[in-house]
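Batch 3, record 17
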Amino acid sequence: MTEGSADWLLEIQRLAIHRNREALVDDASLRIGRGSLHVIVGPNGAGKSTLLAAVLGLTPFDGHIVLNWRHSGAIGYVPQTFPVDPTLPVTVEDFLALSRQRRPVCLGLSALSQRTVARLLARVGLSGLERRPLAVLSGGELRRVLLAHALDPEPELLILDEPTSGLDETAAMWLEETLTTIKHAGHTTILMVSHDLDQVRRIADRVTVLDRRVVAEGAVADVLAEATIRDLIPAGRSRWRRA
Amino acid sequence: MTAFYGWIGELAQRGILPSDFQYPFLIRGFLCVLILAPMLGGLSHLVVTRRMAFFSAALGQAALTGVAIGLLLGEPLNAPYGGMFGFCLLATLTMVFVKRHATLPPDTLIGVFHALTLGLGLCLLVAVTRQFNVHQVESVLFGSLLTVTDADLALLVGVGIVVFALLVRQYNRLLLDSLNPPLASIAGGNSAFLEYFFAVLLTISIIVSLKIIGALLVEALIVVPAAAARNVARGTRNYLLWSVAVAFLAGVGGLVISTKLLVPTGGAVVLAVSAIFFVTMAISRLVGRRRAVA
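Prediction for the assembled complex:
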């Protein structure tokens, strides 16, 4: 991963990722504009999460990933899944303090951590849930806690992997509004994977269609109107499905 | 240390401390428990959170093999630390390496090592028993207070301090890595380093605990305290405190049972910690029902 000077926050050049000799992503190139909300869509197994993992430095790859930092240089990440053992007694405040204080959280939270946790939870509308175990949170609450974690320090690049999958409509709408607010604040570029094409139309600035390689990339209206994409998306369905 | 044991013995004779404290070996055993409880209890809750219970069992078996190797190489019967440290660290690093690079599930791979080390250990023990009486090796297998020396105690103190100092530095990263490795990596943690680091800490802690608990039973004090704590704890701090408290109670209870009933310390500690586990389980059920009713 190298740093460049282009007018883009993130540029992916000829990315290829192989596992067990199978190409999960092949020759994928795209650019993510600074301050934009860029969505990657594609069928299951298209390599969307794998591409995000490469950007996060979690998986080896061939090609180049260029990051053009100007502010914090911080990356926030909301994973697609966050399995929690139902008997695990780790609370929301413990979890949020883990990467925000040097003192082991098992020895207690510092006053600064407590204030930070309270501020983060207020930001995602979960004030008062500090002492609640992670294991008893609903899917929507857990997603909000993960978003709170990703928003501190203020990320220059926020990456979300299917953040609304499994959420009810209210929770999904809240998340969409929050992401739009974050984007309008201007400090954060958002890169997310989604299966929900209606959602893409509502919030995305640009969209990339990935099916192991980049099938299309551009403004939402243009890309989703393309004949080749329409062929891949069954008429009347908002959820992606491999044709 | 003799003066210290004499002073404690005097307090026991005056009735200020229980009469059993007249015996230096029991004082030594109690001091060992005082160090073992926070060390193993502290590691215990991370072992369970990181799902390394089976790994700990395999390490116990590796220690058995390590003892046999140490004795065959001419180490003293009451302190075959070279063999134990050498073989257990080798087994640990190999297990972690293979686990990280193989595609098979971790429990399958650890099962392979578990069987391998046990088989090797048993074969080597046969060779060992040609030189020693098998009963002399029992103390390492099942734990015995009588064989614990001041040097063992000093080693335990030293390792306890090192483990505490290192664990404090990496605790938050280890816990975050247990919950979600990608989030830990993004927060600056190195997943590979954390896995090797914790496995090595666990290994050296297990080795220095063997004289008290025994190679075959040390797993109990690594896993059960946290399992019992999970029944009653809320919050990470509570989880740690309960794990340490359970390990301490089991250690003291085991010492008492071992002394009174003349059974191996390791077995007595396991009985005590298991009893505590079932008590906490019952408490958890009871509290759960009351909450449900309320």
